[in-house]
Write a structure and sequence with these properties.
238 residues; rod-shaped
Protein backbone atom coordinates (compact mmCIF):
# COMPACT_ATOMS: atom_id res chain seq x y z
CA UNK A 1 0.00 0.00 0.00
CA UNK A 2 1.64 3.26 -1.10
CA UNK A 3 1.55 6.67 0.55
CA UNK A 4 -1.23 7.97 -1.70
CA UNK A 5 -3.45 5.03 -0.78
CA UNK A 6 -2.82 5.55 2.92
CA UNK A 7 -3.50 9.25 2.57
CA UNK A 8 -6.77 8.46 0.81
CA UNK A 9 -7.88 6.13 3.56
CA UNK A 10 -7.07 8.49 6.40
CA UNK A 11 -8.56 11.46 4.62
CA UNK A 12 -11.95 9.76 4.61
CA UNK A 13 -12.01 8.16 1.16
CA UNK A 14 -12.50 4.73 2.69
CA UNK A 15 -15.67 5.83 4.45
CA UNK A 16 -16.92 7.41 1.25
CA UNK A 17 -16.50 4.07 -0.50
CA UNK A 18 -18.36 2.28 2.29
CA UNK A 19 -21.09 4.90 2.23
CA UNK A 20 -21.65 4.46 -1.49
CA UNK A 21 -21.55 0.68 -1.36
CA UNK A 22 -24.68 -1.25 -2.30
CA UNK A 23 -26.75 -3.14 0.27
CA UNK A 24 -25.35 -6.46 -0.89
CA UNK A 25 -21.80 -5.11 -0.76
CA UNK A 26 -22.38 -3.84 2.78
CA UNK A 27 -23.69 -7.26 3.77
CA UNK A 28 -20.51 -8.90 2.44
CA UNK A 29 -18.31 -6.36 4.25
CA UNK A 30 -20.20 -6.83 7.52
CA UNK A 31 -19.93 -10.62 7.35
CA UNK A 32 -16.21 -10.46 6.56
CA UNK A 33 -15.61 -7.95 9.35
CA UNK A 34 -17.50 -10.15 11.80
CA UNK A 35 -15.46 -13.20 10.75
CA UNK A 36 -12.24 -11.24 11.12
CA UNK A 37 -13.11 -9.99 14.62
CA UNK A 38 -14.16 -13.45 15.82
CA UNK A 39 -10.98 -14.95 14.33
CA UNK A 40 -8.79 -12.51 16.23
CA UNK A 41 -10.66 -13.20 19.46
CA UNK A 42 -10.10 -16.94 18.94
CA UNK A 43 -6.43 -16.38 18.09
CA UNK A 44 -5.73 -14.49 21.33
CA UNK A 45 -7.77 -16.97 23.37
CA UNK A 46 -5.96 -19.98 21.91
CA UNK A 47 -2.58 -18.33 22.32
CA UNK A 48 -3.21 -17.85 26.04
CA UNK A 49 -4.79 -21.29 26.44
CA UNK A 50 -2.00 -23.23 24.72
CA UNK A 51 0.70 -21.28 26.55
CA UNK A 52 -0.91 -22.16 29.89
CA UNK A 53 -1.45 -25.79 28.88
CA UNK A 54 2.16 -26.28 27.82
CA UNK A 55 3.51 -24.71 31.03
CA UNK A 56 1.19 -26.76 33.29
CA UNK A 57 1.88 -29.97 31.36
CA UNK A 58 5.62 -29.52 31.70
CA UNK A 59 5.35 -28.67 35.40
CA UNK A 60 3.23 -31.74 36.13
CA UNK A 61 5.40 -34.15 34.15
CA UNK A 62 8.52 -32.91 35.91
CA UNK A 63 6.77 -33.47 39.24
CA UNK A 64 5.65 -36.95 38.12
CA UNK A 65 9.18 -37.92 37.11
CA UNK A 66 10.56 -36.81 40.48
CA UNK A 67 7.91 -38.71 42.46
CA UNK A 68 8.96 -42.01 44.03
CA UNK A 69 5.67 -43.71 43.19
CA UNK A 70 2.70 -43.11 40.94
CA UNK A 71 0.42 -42.37 43.89
CA UNK A 72 2.61 -39.45 45.00
CA UNK A 73 1.45 -37.36 42.02
CA UNK A 74 -2.27 -37.43 42.83
CA UNK A 75 -2.23 -34.16 44.77
CA UNK A 76 -0.21 -32.37 42.11
CA UNK A 77 -2.56 -33.65 39.40
CA UNK A 78 -5.67 -32.40 41.18
CA UNK A 79 -4.16 -28.93 41.58
CA UNK A 80 -3.02 -28.69 37.94
CA UNK A 81 -6.45 -27.83 36.56
CA UNK A 82 -5.22 -26.48 33.21
CA UNK A 83 -3.04 -29.48 32.40
CA UNK A 84 -4.60 -32.12 30.12
CA UNK A 85 -1.80 -34.50 31.09
CA UNK A 86 -2.82 -34.31 34.75
CA UNK A 87 -6.37 -35.32 33.81
CA UNK A 88 -5.00 -38.20 31.73
CA UNK A 89 -2.92 -39.24 34.72
CA UNK A 90 -5.95 -39.20 37.03
CA UNK A 91 -7.94 -41.30 34.56
CA UNK A 92 -5.14 -43.87 34.32
CA UNK A 93 -4.47 -43.93 38.05
CA UNK A 94 -8.16 -44.32 38.85
CA UNK A 95 -8.52 -47.20 36.40
CA UNK A 96 -5.39 -48.89 37.71
CA UNK A 97 -6.48 -48.68 41.35
CA UNK A 98 -9.93 -49.95 40.43
CA UNK A 99 -8.44 -52.98 38.68
CA UNK A 100 -6.13 -53.58 41.62
CA UNK A 101 -9.02 -53.45 44.09
CA UNK A 102 -11.04 -55.93 42.03
CA UNK A 103 -8.16 -58.39 41.97
CA UNK A 104 -7.36 -57.97 45.65
CA UNK A 105 -10.69 -57.75 47.38
CA UNK A 106 -10.10 -58.40 51.04
CA UNK A 107 -6.66 -56.78 51.07
CA UNK A 108 -4.52 -58.09 53.94
CA UNK A 109 -6.84 -61.04 54.58
CA UNK A 110 -5.56 -62.68 51.43
CA UNK A 111 -2.43 -64.76 51.57
CA UNK A 112 -1.29 -63.75 48.09
CA UNK A 113 -1.45 -60.38 46.36
CA UNK A 114 -2.71 -60.59 42.77
CA UNK A 115 -0.71 -58.18 40.68
CA UNK A 116 -1.83 -56.56 37.44
CA UNK A 117 -0.98 -58.31 34.19
CA UNK A 118 -0.45 -57.07 30.63
CA UNK A 119 -4.17 -57.24 29.85
CA UNK A 120 -4.88 -54.96 32.79
CA UNK A 121 -2.30 -52.45 31.61
CA UNK A 122 -3.84 -52.49 28.15
CA UNK A 123 -7.12 -51.45 29.76
CA UNK A 124 -5.34 -48.67 31.68
CA UNK A 125 -3.65 -47.46 28.50
CA UNK A 126 -6.93 -47.43 26.57
CA UNK A 127 -8.55 -45.45 29.39
CA UNK A 128 -5.76 -42.88 29.23
CA UNK A 129 -5.99 -42.67 25.44
CA UNK A 130 -9.73 -42.08 25.74
CA UNK A 131 -9.05 -39.27 28.21
CA UNK A 132 -6.45 -37.85 25.82
CA UNK A 133 -8.99 -37.81 22.99
CA UNK A 134 -11.45 -35.94 25.23
CA UNK A 135 -8.83 -33.38 26.25
CA UNK A 136 -7.73 -32.82 22.65
CA UNK A 137 -11.37 -32.31 21.70
CA UNK A 138 -11.57 -29.51 24.27
CA UNK A 139 -8.39 -27.88 22.99
CA UNK A 140 -9.57 -28.11 19.38
CA UNK A 141 -12.80 -26.22 20.06
CA UNK A 142 -13.24 -23.06 17.94
CA UNK A 143 -10.12 -23.79 15.87
CA UNK A 144 -12.40 -25.00 13.08
CA UNK A 145 -13.75 -21.44 12.79
CA UNK A 146 -10.29 -20.30 11.72
CA UNK A 147 -10.29 -22.91 8.96
CA UNK A 148 -13.77 -21.85 7.87
CA UNK A 149 -12.69 -18.20 7.75
CA UNK A 150 -9.50 -19.04 5.86
CA UNK A 151 -11.43 -21.01 3.25
CA UNK A 152 -14.55 -18.89 2.83
CA UNK A 153 -13.38 -15.28 3.30
CA UNK A 154 -11.49 -15.02 -0.02
CA UNK A 155 -14.50 -16.35 -1.91
CA UNK A 156 -16.86 -13.98 -0.14
CA UNK A 157 -14.49 -11.14 -1.01
CA UNK A 158 -14.47 -12.37 -4.59
CA UNK A 159 -18.26 -12.40 -4.58
CA UNK A 160 -18.27 -8.77 -3.45
CA UNK A 161 -15.72 -7.98 -6.15
CA UNK A 162 -17.86 -9.52 -8.87
CA UNK A 163 -20.94 -7.64 -7.68
CA UNK A 164 -19.02 -4.35 -7.67
CA UNK A 165 -17.76 -4.91 -11.21
CA UNK A 166 -21.29 -5.83 -12.36
CA UNK A 167 -22.58 -2.57 -10.91
CA UNK A 168 -19.90 -0.68 -12.82
CA UNK A 169 -20.96 -2.26 -16.10
CA UNK A 170 -24.61 -1.59 -15.25
CA UNK A 171 -23.79 2.08 -14.63
CA UNK A 172 -22.02 2.23 -18.00
CA UNK A 173 -25.09 0.81 -19.72
CA UNK A 174 -27.49 3.18 -17.98
CA UNK A 175 -25.48 6.37 -18.54
CA UNK A 176 -24.00 5.39 -21.86
CA UNK A 177 -20.58 6.48 -20.70
CA UNK A 178 -17.46 4.63 -19.61
CA UNK A 179 -15.86 7.59 -17.87
CA UNK A 180 -13.94 7.17 -14.64
CA UNK A 181 -16.65 8.96 -12.68
CA UNK A 182 -19.16 6.30 -13.76
CA UNK A 183 -17.11 3.16 -13.14
CA UNK A 184 -14.97 4.28 -10.19
CA UNK A 185 -17.52 3.69 -7.37
CA UNK A 186 -18.23 0.12 -8.42
CA UNK A 187 -14.54 -0.69 -8.93
CA UNK A 188 -13.67 0.82 -5.56
CA UNK A 189 -16.39 -1.28 -3.91
CA UNK A 190 -15.06 -4.36 -5.66
CA UNK A 191 -11.48 -3.75 -4.54
CA UNK A 192 -12.57 -3.01 -0.96
CA UNK A 193 -14.38 -6.35 -0.76
CA UNK A 194 -11.22 -8.10 -2.00
CA UNK A 195 -9.05 -6.33 0.58
CA UNK A 196 -11.38 -7.11 3.48
CA UNK A 197 -11.70 -10.74 2.35
CA UNK A 198 -7.95 -11.23 2.25
CA UNK A 199 -7.56 -9.31 5.50
CA UNK A 200 -9.85 -11.82 7.19
CA UNK A 201 -8.40 -14.91 5.50
CA UNK A 202 -4.64 -14.39 5.81
CA UNK A 203 -4.46 -14.18 9.66
CA UNK A 204 -6.90 -17.10 9.90
CA UNK A 205 -4.70 -19.29 7.68
CA UNK A 206 -1.58 -18.48 9.68
CA UNK A 207 -3.36 -18.98 13.02
CA UNK A 208 -4.96 -22.27 11.92
CA UNK A 209 -1.59 -23.73 10.91
CA UNK A 210 -0.03 -22.49 14.15
CA UNK A 211 -2.87 -24.01 16.21
CA UNK A 212 -2.52 -27.35 14.44
CA UNK A 213 1.20 -27.44 15.19
CA UNK A 214 0.53 -26.65 18.85
CA UNK A 215 -2.15 -29.34 19.06
CA UNK A 216 0.21 -31.89 17.50
CA UNK A 217 2.91 -31.00 20.01
CA UNK A 218 0.51 -31.30 22.95
CA UNK A 219 -0.83 -34.61 21.62
CA UNK A 220 2.67 -36.06 21.19
CA UNK A 221 3.67 -34.80 24.64
CA UNK A 222 0.64 -36.51 26.19
CA UNK A 223 1.27 -39.77 24.31
CA UNK A 224 4.84 -39.82 25.61
CA UNK A 225 3.52 -39.30 29.12
CA UNK A 226 1.15 -42.26 28.75
CA UNK A 227 4.09 -44.48 27.81
CA UNK A 228 6.05 -43.20 30.82
CA UNK A 229 3.08 -43.80 33.11
CA UNK A 230 2.59 -47.37 31.91
CA UNK A 231 6.31 -48.14 32.21
CA UNK A 232 6.46 -46.75 35.76
CA UNK A 233 3.26 -48.53 36.75
CA UNK A 234 4.54 -51.88 35.51
CA UNK A 235 7.65 -51.53 37.65
CA UNK A 236 5.50 -50.91 40.73
CA UNK A 237 2.56 -53.31 40.48
CA UNK A 238 3.35 -56.01 37.93
Amino acid sequence: MNELTLAGIFSGSLWKIVGSTSAFGLFILCVLTFMSIVSWVIIFHKWRQYRTVEADNLRFVQSFERARSIADSVGQAKSAGNSPVSKIYLAGYSEMTELWDKKNQGGALQEKVHRLDNDDFEVVEMTMEKSLAEQMGILEKKVIFLASTANSAPFMGLLGTVVGIMESFWAIGERGSASLAVVAPGIAEALLATIVGLGAAIPAVIAFNWANNKLKFINDFANNFILSFIAKAKKEVQ
